[in-house]
TrEMBL record:
Cupin type-2 domain sequence ranges: 34-100
InterPro entries: Cupin_2 (IPR013096), RmlC-like_jellyroll (IPR014710), RmlC_Cupin_sf (IPR011051)
The name this protein goes by in its record: Cupin domain-containing protein
One Pfam family per UniProt: Cupin_2
Gene3D superfamilies, sorted: Jelly Rolls
Domain of life: Bacteria
Length: 111
């Protein structure tokens, strides 16, 4: 067992704009926190792994090619591997607990 301190807790990203911190990694999954400030832009690309977001704090919309939905604290979002998605219209600082299965980047082709 491991207690993961700080997972899903808002941390101001500073000058960079957004903040991703990986807090746990095994071969089968990884977990981290992704923070986007009010008015921030989510510039992520589709991932090669399935992904689950849990909105811990804040409000925004999540957009995929098929739909756009408002999300807030307690929302749980599943995004399958390869699906375009991004958070837009961030109206309150957004803190997301993010789980990847398998671990983030583990399916990315090696160069």
């Amino acid at each position: 067992m491991e207690i993961i301190k700080g997972a899903g807790v808002w941390a101001h990203p500073g000058e960079v704009g957004n903040d991703w911190v990986e807090q746990l990694r095994t071969s089968d999954l990884s977990l981290g926190t992704y923070c986007i400030p009010v008015g921030g832009r989510d510039t992520q690309s589709p991932h090669t792994e399935d992904e689950v977001y849990v909105v811990m704090a804040g409000r925004a919309k999540i957009m995929t090619p098929d739909r756009t939905s408002e999300v807030g604290p307690g929302a749980v979002i599943f995004v399958p591997a390869g699906e375009e998605h991004r958070f837009i219209d961030v109206t309150e600082d957004l803190a997301l607990l993010v789980v990847f299965g398998p671990a983030f980047g583990s399916r990315t082709p090696k160069s």
